[in-house]
Design goal:
It is built from 14 helices and 10 strands. The two termini are 24 Å apart.
Length: 335
């Protein structure tokens, strides 16, 4: 990471910081605020060797972080091998998972720098209603397994997608996290736009968002485990990406598809794809990608109103050093 920091400094931090590898677009949950499970389509998956080569290419390019995402990442049986390889290379590694297969792959998952498990509520019936199946006992059992077996882990974070319907359930979730030494990451539900299908409108309005933010700030005062990003909530309330705060996904986030191709400008909308057999350097030096990177700060129509977390993170680091510093301090729970 130190070597890559020097690479980034030499290039004025004008290179990708992070890879978001969508290991699969399939999912075994049916969350009410997500439509990906309704659009299960056949997909090509990259070979292990192709993914390993992508990791080497990313390290050579100066990338700091590698995130496994989806869909549900653990539906790709090679993910444990990818976690191990990324950890050995020295990336900061993270992965969100719904936790249904966590016990099966626990020994690999604890190698992650940040293992993120999605739980919105400890109310079993409400969980079933929000997530589409009765999976809470399985997920909690997997987390207990990690603790009971004494599996060494760096950080386990519970991701709670928040709207007003589960706001009252968060204190119990914070208690649960406190007892087990987990972090609780809270993020308001938002729309995710994909070019391949339409999704339901689940956006939280500003009045509701203000109530949610006030409640979460109070929760953070009461429980040290709660992680709350002040600038992100302001970004959400201000309407997401704009010309004043443009998305930097095209230039600073490597959006890798299940087949190993690299999609631009982001993982959710495709204007161009670098082929799986092309190296990252070839892709980022291609005329098509250089042009897209030049165009991206001016915002395409589909960018407006987007509030997705990964593009926000790399954009915050690129757009405003002070926002990046505050976010880092909140990540470390210094403030």
């Amino acid at each position: 990471m130190f070597k890559n920091a020097l690479r980034q400094f030499r290039h004025r931090f004008d290179r990708p910081f992070m890879v978001m590898f969508e290991t699969t677009l399939h999912c075994n949950m049916k969350c009410g605020y997500c439509a990906i499970w309704q659009n299960q389509q056949p997909e090509d998956k990259a070979s292990r060797e192709r993914v390993f080569k992508r990791m080497d290419e990313a390290a050579a390019l100066g990338v700091f972080a590698w995130s496994m995402s989806g869909g549900e990442p653990l539906m790709n049986p090679n993910v444990p091998d990818y976690i191990e390889r990324a950890a050995k290379i020295g990336f900061f590694t993270s992965m969100p998972t719904n936790g249904l297969a966590l016990k099966k792959y626990a020994e690999a998952c604890v190698l992650l720098d940040q293992l993120e498990v999605s739980i919105d509520t400890l109310d079993r019936e409400k969980f079933r209603q929000r997530r589409g199946l009765d999976g809470l006992p399985t997920i909690l059992s997997a987390l207990d397994y990690i603790k009971e077996k004494g599996l060494p882990h760096k950080l386990i974070q519970i991701n709670a997608a928040v709207d007003e319907s589960n706001l009252g359930d968060l204190p119990a979730l914070a208690e649960y996290c406190t007892e087990r030494g987990f972090l609780l990451h809270t993020e308001a539900v938002h729309n995710v736009v994909r070019t391949t299908y339409e999704t339901a409108d689940v956006e939280v309005g500003n009045e509701a968002l203000d109530r949610i933010a006030a409640s979460l700030l109070d929760l953070k005062k009461r429980y040290k485990c709660v992680r709350f990003y002040t600038d992100y909530y302001k970004f959400y309330r201000d309407g997401g990406f704009s010309k004043k705060f443009p998305c930097r996904s095209a230039s600073h986030l490597v959006n890798m598809r299940p087949d190993g191709s690299i999609q631009f400008p982001c993982a959710f909308v495709s204007k161009y794809r670098g082929l799986p057999e092309m190296s990252l350097r070839e892709i980022y030096e291609s005329p098509e990608v250089r042009q897209l990177i030049r165009e991206s700060p001016d915002m395409w129509d589909f960018c407006k109103g987007c509030k997705i977390g990964c593009p926000y993170e790399v954009s915050a680091y690129r757009n405003n050093p002070w926002t990046a510093l505050r976010s880092a301090l909140e990540f470390l729970q210094v403030v």
